[in-house]
Amino acid sequence: MFDFSTPVDRHGTWCTQWDYVADRFGSADLLPFTISDMDFPTAPCILDALSQRIAHGVFGYSRWKHDDFLCAIDHWLSTRFNAPVDTAAVVYGPSVIYMVSEMIRQWSAPGDAVLIHTPAYDAFYKVIEGNARQVLAAPLRKTGNDWQCDMRQLEWQMARPECKIMLLCSPHNPTGKVWTHDELATLAQLCERHNVRVISDEIHMDMVWQGHHHIPWSVVGERYALFTSGSKSFNIPALTGAWGVISDAQDRDNYLAVLKGRDGLSSPAVLAVSAHISAYRDGAPWLDALRHYLENNLRYVADQLNQAFPALNWHPPQATYLAWIDLRALGVDDEQLQRVLIEQQKVAIMPGYTYGDEGRGFVRLNVGCPRTKLEKGLQGLINAIRVCLA
Ligand SMILES: Cc1ncc(COP(=O)(O)O)c(C=O)c1O
Q1: Which of 44, 64, 143, 158 could form a disulfide with 268 if both were Cys (CB 3.0 to 4.6 A apart)?
Q2: pLDDT, tens digit, for every residue of 102-126?
Q3: Which of 361, 302, 275, 287 is closest to 47 using CA atoms?
Q4: Whose CA is nearest to atom 9 of ligand 1?
């Protein structure tokens, strides 16, 4: 019903993934598997909604606080996660990281610390340090193919007086970990005990694979800010736009006052609002077909990699279309691998150290693309590993 196999040429569309690959990798003619967006056109229902809105032709100031938007969100959270939302608590923002940044400022002072699970999405380090807060790392440990959080070590970190916020990534980028109900409940208890506020970044919530279930923080937590967007799931990040739930009325008012007053952002990107309404009302069949395609892509990566290097015994992640590949069993040198990938194989794949020191020995391969592109990129990775091992 939906075509995810036919490649669409994105060159010349000012897209970060292809047109600006040289900024990070130093070379322009690379096949990119980098920043987390996908090479697919968005859902047909979204394209229709956008076409209609564009045909109207008038793009004056807009609003997000209306039933069309709020009820579409409630519908999505209710039907996908069985977690209806108090629509009065919903907030909007231009991006998830903008919203995270603002709540860090609201809930902590310069010099305070924000706890994150490492390795971590690189923007987390930047948003914490850019706000003059310290990063407190709670390392995730790999046991078999799962990632575990050492709750005793985490509590020890949380007990530090400077620790004011836990910035949770749920599901977790880059490991793909899906937090279980028990883990979330324990985290909630510990945060409560140590008076640590929670910002839960749930932007990857829709990309959770068979056998795993995303549980929104709103199910377990009390005083929190949960931020997300349809941008990853429906591949619309360049429209900009995110939303969330801030549970406490005063916190919410403070956030909205800053959005409107200090930052002059009260009028949302109307195309983003329109896209979200359409996605959350009518986008489920497309998303489920896409998820099926992506899961097969991840399985393909596992089959090919393990065939080439049985010692890897790599398993697809629990969530996200980002294959977090542990190459440590092969003892490949990270810097040499990057050199060979870029110079010889002409492929751009994120080195694991982008996500902190615990990412050394890993690469992050974005599989949000047609299979034919993935085949080329994966072959490039396999070839590059062979060169490094020779
Ligand atoms: C965990 C996580 N949060 C946030 C973002 C970016 O979201 P936004 O562009 O809305 O700030 C990403 C993008 O890769 C992400 O992986």
Answers
A1: 64
A2: 999 999 999 999 999 999 999 999 9
A3: 275
A4: 95
